[in-house]
Amino acid sequence: TPAETKSKDKGKGIMVEEPKSMKKKQHFKMDEEYARKLHKELNKDIDWDVAIDHSKEKIEEEDIKSIESINETLDHKAAKRRKLNEEVEDLKQHLEIVPDEDDDVPVMDYQII
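User: That's the sequence. What structure does it adopt?
Assistant: Structure tokens below.
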């Protein structure tokens, strides 16, 4: 049998340099450029007049709702006040003191007659 020979690595292979990692400044600059590009693409599809009108309508609706709730609370407070005044008048009628002169009990020698 022929002798098996091992091939030795003679170091004559082609050396491939690994890409260097980017520095922070370069990385941030690239991210900013990408963000601007995406921003332009997204804004291209948006009709800003419609978006502004929509947001104005929402703000107006919220203002109207808040004003209605304020008016509602004022009406609610006024109704409570009226009800309380009615209850006070009713209680005053029940608390009216009526003098009772006919039901006096005469006492004679500490005996009830």
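The CA atoms of residues 49 and 71 lie 33 Å apart.
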